[in-house]
């Protein structure tokens, strides 16, 4: 694991245009900062999808085409604290739908908290927590051949390139059966004055989240990044519909990393690209879905039409 981290950091920092993978944001500190981000006034994404789950619950249930007569499995990839999903679970439970809820997450801590919370709030609900890799868990659930609805919320797909997103969704499909559904929650392309502040909040939480990557390299790989000489810089191109996060060197400087045994030079103003957060429209989603075994069935929007939950059928 640390070996892979080391190699990816080395490769990214040696490139002509420097990069670091966004998956390394999420250590304990990064997880906590992301929870803070989701509660920021500027980070509209979470509130918009919660609006759908709170106010369009019945539309969601209808789009799943499930009946109270037959059983299904509701699987959530990266369930976190389950705030949004709880709205749906409450409604399914109240209407006596016959299902088990399988939240999958890499954090056993998050899963245990969620299980405890749901036991309190919805004591009749059957919760089967699944710790680990999404695809491994899905492969093991496939054997049951039970109808499945998979939730992938929060525009998490947006942190992948379009090709990677298509591969990811294709792989999800290969672990499902014909007729199973995928709910894909995505942020929509919109004006710069709305998107950019979500990645450049006034309290500097997103800056800490981004720079935490350098802290991780210092702590885990023996780096000597001086965090005072780097700053967070988000950019958003309205036409392309991609928000990008960079870490910018504010001085000419050299950084050493013990684990790689190398030094890396930075010129003043040089950027390290750390994340893409893709925003979508129907055409972009259709182009991605075309390369998979899914068909697009329905789209459910929040009241501001900032965010969409697309329902796909395998
Ligand atoms: C997890 N992901 C969808 C977030 C996003 O909006 O791209 C991560 C994030 N990065 C900065 N702020 C939030």
UniProtKB/TrEMBL annotation:
Annotated ranges, domain Histidine-specific methyltransferase SAM-dependent: 5-313
Pfam (any one): Methyltransf_33
GO MF, one annotated term: methyltransferase activity
Keyword field: ATP-binding, Methyltransferase, Nucleotide-binding, Transferase
Example GO BP: methylation
UniProt name for this protein: ABC transporter ATP-binding protein
SUPFAM superfamilies associated with the record: S-adenosyl-L-methionine-dependent methyltransferases
Source organism: Algibacter lectus
């Amino acid at each position: 694991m640390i070996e892979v981290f080391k190699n990816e950091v080395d490769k990214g920092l040696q490139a002509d245009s420097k990069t670091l993978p966004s998956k390394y944001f999420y250590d304990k500190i990064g997880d906590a900062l992301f929870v803070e981000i989701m509660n920021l006034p500027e980070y509209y994404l979470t509130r918009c999808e919660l609006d759908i789950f709170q106010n369009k619950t019945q539309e969601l249930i209808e789009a799943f085409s499930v009946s109270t007569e037959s059983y299904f499995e509701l699987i959530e990839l990266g369930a976190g604290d389950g705030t949004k999903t709880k709205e749906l679970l409450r409604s399914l439970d109240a209407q006596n739908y016959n299902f088990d809820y399988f939240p999958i997450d890499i954090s056993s801590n998050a899963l245990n908290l969620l299980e405890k919370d749901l036991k309190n709030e919805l004591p009749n609900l059957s919760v089967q927590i699944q710790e680990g890799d999404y695809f491994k868990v899905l492969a093991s659930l496939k054997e049951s051949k039970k109808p499945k609805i998979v939730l992938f919320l929060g525009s998490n797909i947006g942190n992948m390139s379009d090709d990677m997103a298509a591969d990811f969704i294709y792989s999800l499909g290969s672990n499902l059966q014909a007729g199973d559904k995928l709910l894909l929650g995505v942020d929509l392309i919109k004006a710069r004055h709305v998107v950019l502040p979500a990645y450049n909040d006034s309290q500097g939480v997103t800056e800490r989240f981004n720079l935490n990557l350098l802290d991780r390299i210092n702590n885990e790989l023996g780096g000597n990044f001086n965090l005072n000489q780097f700053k967070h810089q988000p950019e958003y191109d309205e036409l392309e519909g991609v928000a990008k996060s960079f870490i910018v060197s504010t001085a000419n400087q050299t950084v050493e990393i013990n684990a790689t045994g190398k030094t890396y030079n930075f010129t003043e103003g040089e950027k390290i690209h750390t994340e893409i957060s893709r925003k979508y429209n129907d055409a972009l989603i259709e182009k991605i879905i075309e390369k998979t075994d899914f068909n697009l069935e329905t789209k459910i929007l929040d009241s501001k039409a900032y965010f969409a939950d697309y329902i796909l059928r395998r």
